[in-house]
Backbone:
């Protein structure tokens, strides 16, 4: 097949700017791999880029999509890590995104797919899952017995963070609406707070806070941390964090703005944790690739539990 379908946008705007288009199937250069996409995840970053709220990739046209799972179709000259037919997962950045039949990626941006997951669930790992993994394992280095607070615990990053923190022996506290508490207890949460009816700032002696909301949650969360604790903001864009940084220093705690930087070692390490500890993505909706606009609407609503995945 010399051609492929892509979900393209020619301008910033609402979900209606997304269109199914045809493109030439690319060929991998040295160090690159062409992957036939079996599933691709939807993240809040996708609709924020689509709408022009963040302009990380310049002006359209571009193809959105950051995370995917699929099968290696072709490798560039000199490639040694993978072979055609290998099942892999990974990440990519627009304008050459993963909302397509094929995606061209550097060999360093993929890893072997976890053996315990199918492609639909593996496609949900590359952004939200790796964000939770890097913040809790690499940065916070969570230890058994520590207290970890996860905001929006039923969301994309949140539901991974609950499982990873629990797998490392932590006492896990999550904020979420009451309707999502049963789901989070199944994932291992020890304590849950409905942020619509209770104030989480009454918590004390928290070692790590994973903030997936930002805004006022940052300064409020500082009150919960013990000295030496850390607040990690994974949103990446939004309000000025100067005041949060200053208050954190005054409180004797750390504040960090996290930005995803996938590495082959972390992708492989996360895949290993998934297989060993039974970490599972919650996929609430699986839609055809051609219904990307509907997927964006659902994601933008902010009420999705877990992840949305597109399939060819």
Residues:
């Amino acid at each position: 097949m010399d051609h492929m379908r892509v979900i393209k946008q020619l301008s910033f705007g609402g979900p209606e700017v997304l269109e199914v288009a045809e493109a030439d199937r690319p060929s991998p250069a040295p160090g690159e791999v062409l992957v036939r996409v079996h599933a691709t995840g939807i993240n809040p970053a996708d609709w924020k880029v689509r709408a022009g709220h963040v302009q990380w990739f310049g002006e359209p046209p571009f193809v959105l999509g950051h995370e995917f799972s699929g099968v290696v179709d072709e490798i560039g000259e000199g490639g040694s890590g993978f072979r055609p037919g290998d099942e892999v997962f990974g990440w990519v950045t627009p304008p050459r995104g993963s909302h397509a039949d094929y995606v061209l990626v550097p060999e360093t941006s993929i890893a072997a797919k976890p053996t315990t997951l199918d492609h639909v669930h593996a496609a949900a790992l590359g952004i939200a899952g790796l964000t939770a993994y890097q913040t809790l394992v690499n940065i916070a280095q969570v230890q058994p017995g520590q207290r970890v607070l996860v905001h929006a615990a039923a969301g994309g990053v949140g539901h991974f963070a609950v499982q990873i923190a629990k797998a490392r022996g932590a006492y896990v506290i999550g904020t979420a609406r009451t309707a999502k508490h049963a789901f989070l207890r199944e994932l291992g949460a020890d304590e849950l707070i409905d942020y619509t009816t209770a104030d989480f700032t009454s918590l004390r002696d928290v070692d790590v806070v994973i903030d997936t909301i930002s805004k006022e949650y940052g300064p409020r969360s500082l009150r919960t941390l013990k000295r030496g604790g850390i607040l990690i903001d994974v949103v990446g864009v939004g309000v000025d964090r100067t005041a949060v940084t200053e208050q954190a220093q005054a409180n004797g705690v750390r504040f960090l703005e996290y930005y995803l930087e996938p590495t082959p070692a972390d992708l492989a390490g996360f895949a290993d944790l998934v297989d060993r500890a039974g970490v599972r993505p919650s996929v609430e909706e699986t839609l055809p690739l051609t219904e990307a606009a509907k997927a964006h609407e659902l994601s933008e609503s902010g009420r999705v539990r877990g992840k949305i995945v597109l399939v060819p």
Remarks:
- The chain has a mean pLDDT of 94.
- The two ends are 15 Å apart (CA to CA).
- The CA atoms of residues 199 and 284 lie 28 Å apart.
